[in-house]
TrEMBL record:
This is TonB-dependent Receptor Plug Domain protein. Residues 125-225 form the TonB-dependent receptor plug domain. Gene3D superfamilies: TonB-dependent receptor, beta-barrel domain (2.40.170.20), TonB-dependent receptor, plug domain (2.170.130.10). GO terms for molecular function: siderophore uptake transmembrane transporter activity. The lineage of its organism: Bacteria, Pseudomonadati, Myxococcota, Polyangia, Nannocystales.
Length: 808
């Protein structure tokens, strides 16, 4: 690609040629479509640099630039999922050849790189990732909102601070595992409104595995896995980082973030990082009224230090999250008639008194989450590598209900401490003539203790020990990959029930008499021992020899999930969602038998994927509404007012559905088109009806205009998109308190641009949501019984990426 003619007093001298080959440092593979930003002198005698051209490498990783003048040339080479590289050249010969190697930020960023044991591609299940500029455009949002737009993923919207939980193919909560920095997140999930306490701003890539990941991650991954991967520490001497900020119009607020990485020249292999972010916003606004007391305050800080070499890596780190979340005043109801009137009116009965302010009143949640880690990687020569990680997490959650003014402090106080140790041996690749065997063996040990203090009841104190072993092996051929995985898990749990909880479960016939025995204080001690096995079998094929970008994936799995503490012993209501939840200690292991099939083509200018899945769940633990009779029907009367009742009960369930997504960008045409569709069906086989909480069908389409790169800007775009969510028609009226809301359409738009400095990249974007200011309620929002979702809003984000090379 010829560069634009340069200003020169002797134009005839500008006839030099520069040829470059861009490779990945670890694999030696060519990197196609890497962006090259050239800066050349305005004339041969001037040392001043200015941007002259942008171009991209071809499919073979090469690029050729002609018409260059003698003198210095500075080139910035960048590619998603890789560290950028700056090259300084002195042009004098007629043709100058260069080789540029980029370091991959994460393993298995490309289908052609086979790394079975890497955390970012642990199984052959369908997955989808966000990174780079796409992830940067979602900074400041909660985890569930960051994942919005990934096909097959929707949100169980909460009532506190606008947060929620991701729903992956109809599964949510404890069936979806969240892994932050290779560590399984442990938090307070015994509350349908308890959002995961993780910091998506600390992630450089977010990957959703849509399907069972139990063999690699454990039984909580029966529905799917969300992987949050921070940017690796730098391997070469440098000072690099990012500083950014964001502002929202609805809910009004904003915040900022920073990350600073330092690798000194005189301490080869050493690297450090400090990072943090802060966000605060006031109550959100629906098209007609404010959602009173839904503001939030969140901040995160973290630090780590590591030593990196060819033979050994050592890293220690610490991360702290602090959240204060207001819970919508609209949830407070004094009588069953008031609840029914609110549903009939389509708005809270006391909406005239609502305000949009920053004050966080009762009810509210306050959370501290601590994460400390230490890990190492040891190269074992021709035998492979050994990885070890120890982590400690402490989750401190307090919930404040509306009480008399004389009462201070929280009504619920949880303290969850978790120690975990994970070992993984990645054996070296074994050559089997036309096949290669790669894989990993692992083992894990966890100890967890929960202490619960409150003036009410919800879950008991407990202590549990867990252990696991697993093996994942993949046979790799030029056109076929076959994977086998197996895992064995054990868990021992001892729970101490107070008198009210023990007698309540006895009276309701929900006590496991074989595992529980009374204590001297009229309470009870319940001890459960679980041993479970899981297995997967997957195949990836490239059936067309000349079209290696066309792949077919299939997977069969059998996953076992152990009941969580709230499913066994929940007995009470939390301020975060005023419902009475009842557990059953007789519940046993939940067994899933599932499979999926996907077809994908990832060409140079278009991508398309279609997937179908189905799973049968034996003894599916169903958290479902139970309508009551009596004075407060369909709610139940308590001393704190009328509450809806939700119970855990077993059933046999069948899930099936599918997803389609595509991304089209024809060459030399400045337009791109992307879209997706997702369908989920859940069936209660015993009741012969649909399961509750299944997401409605969802369709999205986005068109984007791509501006040409210039001397000042790159990757500039303007986009317009819409999302259609249909009305959920598959539900059982007797298992719900209000009919499903109508279908709705959300219109969004956005614009963004990048500016390249000599050592910096400046990113700026603006996004508009619900631009039609549509009044709507989502079937999977806990708020839908009480109020509407927020109206239109704008989000502005900016960031500066900088990198200062310190030499070798």
């Amino acid at each position: 690609m010829p560069a634009p003619a340069q200003n020169s007093e002797d134009a005839g001298a500008c006839t030099l040629v520069w040829e470059v080959l861009v490779l990945e440092s670890d694999t030696g593979e060519a990197i196609p479509n890497a962006q090259l930003a050239l800066r050349a002198p305005a004339n041969p005698s001037s040392p001043r640099l200015r941007t002259e051209a942008f171009l991209h490498t071809r499919a073979d990783g090469r690029a050729r630039v002609t018409g260059l003048c003698p003198g210095p040339l500075q080139v910035t080479v960048s590619k998603a999922e890789h560290d950028s590289r700056r090259v300084h050249l002195e042009l004098s010969a007629a043709t100058t050849e260069s080789l540029v190697e980029l370091d991959a930020l994460h393993g298995h960023h490309d289908e052609r790189v086979i790394v079975v044991h890497d955390d970012s591609d642990p199984t052959l299940a369908a997955s989808e990732s966000l990174s780079g500029a796409e992830l940067s455009r979602r900074r400041g949002a909660g985890l569930a909102d960051v994942l919005t737009g990934i096909s097959g993923v929707s949100t169980l919207r909460g009532t506190a601070g606008g947060l929620g939980k991701p729903i992956i193919r109809g599964q949510f909560g404890r069936r979806n595992m969240i892994v932050f920095d290779q560590i399984r997140h442990e938090g307070q999930e015994w509350g349908i409104d308890h959002a995961p306490e993780v910091d998506p701003q600390a992630a450089d890539r977010v990957t959703v595995i849509k399907g069972a990941g139990t063999t690699r991650f454990g039984p909580e991954a029966a529905g799917g896995v969300v992987l949050l991967e921070p940017r690796p520490l730098p391997r070469t001497p440098s000072l690099r980082g990012e500083v950014g900020g964001f502002g929202y119009s609805n809910p009004l607020g904003g915040g900022g973030s920073f990350r600073l990485d330092y690798a000194p020249k005189r301490g080869k292999g050493l690297a450090t990082r400090v990072e943090g972010n802060l966000a605060r916003h006031r109550s959100a606004l629906t098209p007609d009224y404010p959602l009173d007391n839904t503001g939030s305050l969140t901040w995160n800080v973290g630090a780590r230090i590591g030593y990196i070499s060819e033979s050994i890596d050592v890293e220690v780190g610490y991360h702290l999250m602090r959240q204060q979340l207001g819970i919508c005043t609209c949830l407070q109801i004094s009588t069953a008639e008031e609840f029914q009137r609110s549903v009939a009116l389509g708005q809270p009965v006391a909406v005239d008194a609502y305000r949009a302010d920053f004050e966080l009143e009762r009810p509210r949640q306050e959370i501290w989450h601590h994460l400390a880690l230490a890990r190492t990687r040891v190269a074992l020569g021709h035998a492979g590598e050994l990885h070890a990680t120890y982590s400690y997490q402490f989750n401190d959650r307090q919930e404040f209900a509306i009480v008399r003014e004389s009462v201070v402090g929280p009504q619920l106080d949880f303290g969850l401490a978790t120690h975990s140790l994970d070992l993984r041996y990645e054996h070296a690749a074994v050559d089997l003539r036309r096949w290669t065997l790669v894989g990993a063996l692992g083992a894990g040990l966890t100890q967890q203790r929960n202490e619960f203090e409150s003036t009410a009841s919800l879950v008991p104190d407990y202590e549990q020990w867990g252990w696991s072993v697993y093996d994942i092996e993949r046979f790799v051929h030029d056109r076929v990959e076959i994977e086998f995985g197996a895992r064995y898990e054990g868990l021992h749990r001892s729970a101490a029930l107070a008198e009210r909880d023990y007698l309540g479960q006895q009276a309701g016939g929900r006590i496991d008499a074989e595992a529980c025995e009374p204590t001297a204080d009229n309470g009870g001690t319940c001890k459960h021992l679980f041993n479970t096995a899981s297995a997967t079998f997957g195949v990836l094929g490239r059936p067309i020899r000349r079209a290696r970008d066309f792949t077919i994936r299939g997977q069969l799995n059998s996953s076992a999930r152990i009941p969580a503490i709230d499913e066994h012993f929940m007995n009470g209501a939390a301020p975060s969602f005023p419902m009475l939840g009842l557990g059953d200690s007789r519940l046993g292991v939940e067994r899933t038998w599932g499979g999926e099939l996907s077809v994908q083509y990832a060409g140079a200018w278009w991508f398309v994927e279609a997937a179908a899945f189905s799973s049968f769940v034996d003894d599916y633990i169903y958290f479902v509404a139970e309508q009551q009779e009596g004075q407060c029907a369909p709610l139940t009367c308590t001393t704190r007012g009328p509450f809806p009742v939700f119970v855990f009960q077993p059933t046999n369930a069948l899930f099936n559905g599918g997803e389609v997504r595509f991304d089209l960008q024809a060459p030399r045409i400045p337009f791109a088109l992307a879209g997706s569709a997702a369908w989920v069906r859940g069936h209660d086989l015993e009741a012969a009806g649909p399961l509750a909480f299944m997401p409605a069908d969802r369709y999205s389409l986005t068109g984007r205009y791509l501006f040409p790169d210039s001397r000042l800007t790159t990757r500039a775009y303007l986009e317009l998109g819409g999302t259609v969510v249909t009305r959920q028609t598959r539900y059982q009226p007797e298992l719900d308190f209000a009919p499903p809301p109508p279908a709705y359409v959300l219109l969004g738009a956005g614009a963004g641009v990048e500016f390249l400095g000599e050592r910096e990249i400046y990113r700026l974007s603006v996004t508009g949501t619900n631009l039609l200011n549509m009044r709507y309620r989502d079937f999977n929002s806990l708020l839908r019984y009480f109020a509407d979702e927020p109206g239109w809003g704008l989000q502005l984000r900016f960031a500066v990426d900088f990198d200062v090379a310190l030499g070798s």
